[in-house]
Amino acid sequence: MAHFDTEYQRLEASYSDSPPGEENLLMHVAEGSKSQWHHIENLDLFFQRVYNLHQKNGFTCMLLGEIFELVQLLFVVGFTVFLANCVDYDILFANKFVNHTNSFKVTLPDAFLPVDVCSAHIRDNTFVIFVLIISGVFWLHRFVKFIYNVCCYWEIRSFYIHALKMSMSELPYATWQEVQARIIEIQKEHQICIHKKELTELDIYHRILRFKNYMVAMVNKSLLPVRFRLPVLGECVFYTRGLKYNFELIFFWGPGSLFENEWSLKPEYKRGGNRLELADRLASRILWIGIANLLLCPVILVWQILYAFFSYTEVIKREPGSLGARCWSLYGRCYLRHFNELDHELMSRLSKGYKAASKYMNCFLSPLLMVVAKNVAFFAGSLLAVLIALTIYDEDVLAVEHVLSSITLLGVCITVCRSFIPDKLMVFCPEQLLRVILAHIHYMPDHWQGNAHRYETRDQFSQLFQYKAVFILEELLSPVVTPIILIFCLRRKSLEIIDFFRNFTVEVVGVGDTCSFAQMDIRQHGHPAWMSAGETEASIYQQAEDGKTELSLMHFAITNPQWQPPQETTHFIHQLKERVHREATAGPDARPLSLSESEPRSLVADMLAGPSTLAPVHFGCNSSLMNNAAAGINSAATGLRSLSPICSSLYLRGSLSAAHRAGGCSGRTMAGSGTDARTVSSGSSAWEGQLTSLVLSEYASTEMSIHALYMHELHKQQSRGEPSRHTWHRQESDESSDSIPDEVRSEPSARSLSFPRSHTFPTATSSPSAASASASATRGATVGQEWARSQSSSQRRHSGPAADQFGAGGRVARTSRMPMGGWAEDGTAASRHHEPLPEETSEDEAPPHIHKMT
Amino acid sequence: MNCRSEVLEVTVEARQVEEAMLALLHTVLLHRSTGKFHYKKEGTYSIGTVGTRDIDCDFIDFTFVRVSSEELDRVIRKAVSEFKEALSNSGSDGMGQISLEFYQKKKSRWPFSDECIPWEVWSIKVNVVNLANEQERQICREKVGEKLGEKVINVVEVINRHEYLPKMPTQSEVDNVFDTSLKDVQPYLYKITYQITDTLGTSVGTTMRRLIKDTLAL
C-alpha cells in the first residue's frame, strides 16, 4: 500500500461506491488471457502462415509432404552418386564376362562395385565432392527449416482449431474466403491486431501480399529491368526465380534493404531530401550483391538444380497445366496479377486460361515446320511399322542389337513430329481465342485486339506463356545472367527505385507501410482511359498502366463481397456493376438469341457445371457477332446477350451475395454452423443449404471475366475516341536515365511530351515512329482481311435477317449508353465502326502526345 | 508492427534535459500504473491504492504529478541520468531519443524463449540547444514549461482513447502483464531504452537475426 505523504488527501465523501474501511469489498474479476491469440506480434507472418496452412490443406498434409520431400532429396542425391560411381556398366552391357560357378545369368548385385572401390571413386572426384557438400548444406538448411516450420505451424494449427473452430480435416474443403471471414469475426473477440477494433478483408490481403503488391506495381510501371533488346534474339523478357530472389533481397529483406522490418519502410527513404545520396547507397549495394552473385555462381547453379528438382513436384501439384509443353512465365504471372490477388486466385485464373492459351499458340505452328514434320513422321512411321511387324512375326528380332532402342527412338520422333502437325479439326480463329484468354487473364495490351492473327502478337504473348523448355533453360542461365542484370541494368535505376518507394508508399493504420497502388484508390491511381475519367486525379506518373487499378478493384470487390470499400470506390463499383447488369439484361428481352434459343437448358446446365470449358463457344459467337454488327461498343453488349447463361449466373450471384450479406448482418454464429464447412449460414435466404460459398466463388470468376471483357471493350472504345493516347509503344523507362521526380505531378506537360507512356504493353522499341508506321501499314491490310473473313463466317453461322437485327439492336444500345460514357458523338462513332480501316491507320500515324492530367 | 507508437518532441537546454524527461516519463507511467493486486479466491482481486505527489522542477517553470513510489522514481531517474550522460558525452549536436516501451510477455513452448511483445511505445525526441545569455535562458525556462504542459495534455488525450490494453491477468499470469517487483505500485511491464542521434540502419545483430529468421521462414 502506498503511504499518503502528499498534500492530496482522499475525499471520503466522493467515494460513494466504496465506503470507508470497506475497500476490500470492491472486487474485480480477472479476465485472464483466455485466448493466447490476442495481440500477435508479427501479424504479417502470422497471416501468411494461416494462408499457407490453408493452401497446404492442413497440418498433417503439410508435415507429411515436407518429410517426404526431405527423404526424396536424400534419395535423389544418393541414387545419382551411386549410379555415377558405384556401378560397373561393362557388366551390365555385357562387354565384360562374369564368371559364375553355377549359372550364366548376370545378377544385378554383380554389377555393383565393392564399397572400398566405390568410396575411392568418390574421393578422387572433386566435382562429386563439391556437389555432395552443397547438397549436404542444402539438405541441412531444409531440415532446420522444416523443424522451425513444424514448431511455428503447430501454433497456427491450434489457432485454427481453438480460435477459428475449424478442424484440420475440414480445412481442405473450406474456401479461403470462409477462413478469412472467421478471422475477421474473431478479431472482435480476441483483438489479434491492436490498432483497430475490426479488421477488413483488405487489411489481411495487404499483410499477406505486402511485398508482392510492390513487385506487381514495379512490373506494371516497368521499373524492373526485365525486358531487353538483344541484337539477335530481338526483344525478350528475362525474369527468373533467381532474379526475383535478388530483387526481393535488395528491396525488402536483405541486409541494408529499404525496409526496416516486414511492415515499415525505413524513415529516411520516406523523405525526399537526400534521395540522391540514398540512390548512391542503393547503387553500391546492388553492385556488391551483383559481385557476390558472380562469385557464388557455381554454387548457385548446383543449388538451383537441386531446388528446381525439389520444387518441381510442388509445381505439378499446383498447376495442372504444368505437364503440358508450355507454362505461364514468371513475368507473365507478375504482369497478369491483380493488386491484392492471392496465389491461389491467380493460379486458378491462369489454369482456366491455359487451354485457350495453348490453343492460341498452336494456331501459329509454322507451315514450313509442318511440312518437314509431316514427312519426317512419314519416314519414321514406315520404319517403325516394319520393325514392329517383324517383331510380331518373330520376337527374336528384338534380340538383335539396337532394335529395341531404335523402335523407342522412332516412337519418340513421331511423337515430337506430331506436335508440330496441327489438329485437323482446328480452325484458325485467333481473335476469338484471344478473347477467351482475356476473359481469364484479364490483362492484355491494347494493340493485341484486332491483331491477334499477327506474329508480333504471338511473340509478345509467348513472353507471358512460354515453352517449359525455355523456362528451364532460363533458370539454368540465370546464375550467369543475374549478376549482369544487377550490375548493369538495375544499378542505373536506383534513383527511380528510391523515388518509387517514396512516392508510392502509404502508411495505413493497423497495416503499416504498403504500396499505395494496392489501396486500389481510383482517385489516386486511376487511369482516365479505363472508366475512371473524371474521378481520377492522378498524374501520368501515378496512373497504373493497363487499367490495373480499376480491374484490381473490381476483382477484389467481386471476390470479397463482404468488403466495404470507401465511399467513392463504392460508387465506382456500383456504377460499373449496374452498367454490366443492364447490358446483360437488355439482351434477352429485346430479342431471343438464336444460340440460346436452340438449346437453352443444356447451356445453362453446362455453364453451371463448368463455365471455362464452354466459354470458347460463347465468346466465339460473341466476336463474330461483334464484327457483323458493325463492331464497336455494342460488341460487349451483344457478347453479354449471347451469354445469357452467364447473365443468369450474374443474377444468381447477385442475389446470392445479397443473401450472404443479409445472413452476415443477421448475426451469423461462427461456431454454431459447423455442420457443413462450405455452407454459408445465411439465415433467411432461400438458397440456404443449396448454394455453397464454393459455388459463389465460382460465379465470382465468371462475373469477373464479364467485367474484364466489358472494361476492355469500353477502354478500346474510349481510346478510339481519344487517339492521342493511343500509342502502342511504351518507352522503356531505362531510356530515360534520370528518374521522375515529384515535380512531374505539378508540371507534366514538358516531360510527358518526351516521355510517352501509354496503357499498352511495354515494348522496348528504340525507334517507335518507324515501327508504328510499318505496323500500321501491314495492319491496315490484315485488318481488312480479318474483317472480311469474320463477316463471311458470321454470315455462315447466322441467317441474314438475324444479322440485320443485331445491327439495329447494337445501334440502339449505343445511343442509350451515350450519357454514361460520353466520349464520342453517335454519328461519328457509327461512321467509324463502318469504316474501320482508315481509322486504324490514322490512329497510328497520329503523333503521340499525352493529355495534361492535372 | 502490432503496437501503437506515440512520438513526443521537445527542445530544451542541456540542464533541463533530466527534468523534462522525468516529467514526461512519469506522466505516462502515472497513467499506466495501478495499485497492487490482491488476489482472492475464484480469480477475483482487489486493487490497492496509489498515491501521487507533485514535483516542482528547478530549471523549468513546471510542476508535474508522479506516482508516489520512491522505487519507481529511482529506476526512472537512473535511466534518465544515463541518457543525459550519453547525450552530453556524444559531443554531437545533441539529438537523442528516449523511449518507453510497454510490453507483455508471452510464454512459448520449449525451443523458443519467452517473447516480449510491445503494445505501446512512447518515443521522446530531445533536441538540446545552447543559449547565449541569461535572458534567453529565462525565456526558455518559461517556454519549455508551456511546451511540457501541452505534451502532458497530449499524453492524457492519447490515454483517454479506448484502445487496446492487455487484459487483466489471473494470479498466475500477473507477471506477464505487470511489473510486480515494486512493493507499492504496479506498472505495466515497461522498458526504457535510449538512442543518441538516430543512427542509420539497424545494428548488425538485428540484421543477422532477421537474416536467419527469413531464411528459415517458408
Strand content of chain A: under 5%
| Distance separating the two termini of chain A | 66 Å
If you average the pLDDT of chain B, what whole number results? 84
> What does the radius of gyration of chain B come to?
19 Å
Class computed from helices, strands and strand pairing of chain A: mainly alpha
Strands in their spatial order, largest beta sheet of chain B: 1-8-7-10
Q: How many DSSP helices of chain B? A: 5
* Spatial gap, N to C terminus of chain B: 20 Å
Number of strands of chain B: 10
Shape of chain B from CA axes? globular
How many DSSP H or I helices of chain A?
A: 36
Question: Could you state the order of secondary-structure elements of chain B as H and E?
Answer: EHEEEEEHEEHHEEH
Secondary-structure arrangement, i.e. CATH architecture of chain B:
2-Layer Sandwich
Q: How many beta strands in the DSSP annotation of chain A?
A: 9
Membrane topology (chain A): Multi-pass membrane protein
Main location (chain A): membrane
Family (chain A): Belongs to the ATG9 family.
Subcellular location (chain A): Cytoplasmic vesicle, Autophagosome membrane; Endoplasmic reticulum membrane; Golgi apparatus, trans-Golgi network membrane; Late endosome membrane
Keywords, separated by commas or semicolons:
heterodimer, A: 854 residues, mainly alpha, two-stranded antiparallel sheet, 36 helices, 9 strands, 3% strand, disordered C terminus, B: 218 residues, alpha+beta, Cell Cycle, Spindle Assembly Checkpoint Protein, Chain A, 4-stranded mixed beta sheet, 30% strand, golgi apparatus (chain A), Autophagy-rel_prot_9 (chain A), ubl conjugation (chain A), endosome (chain A)
